[in-house]
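Worked Example 4.2. Consider the chain below.
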Amino acid sequence: MKKYTLHLLILTVLTAILGFSGFEFIGDSVVRFACLLSGIGLFISCLDAVIISRRNRKLKKQVETEKVKSNHGSRKFSNNQ
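Applying the procedure from the previous section yields the following structure tokens:
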């Protein structure tokens, strides 16, 4: 859904300008409804991007801590002085 964010943003802005500018025409309510739907889609797309980026950060952090733990356990200390 992240790849549609820019498309939904453009569609939302265009339909908002066209639907809520004050001009009276036949498809006025249809354009406003399209603005509502594209706005909801934009919201979901942005929310999806935030959730996925947080999940990726969390997984990356877990992998790094596991690497540190495994490296720490495999070290051999010797006192050859």
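The radius of gyration is 25 Å. The first helix runs from residue 5 to 19. Compare this with Example 4.1 before moving on.
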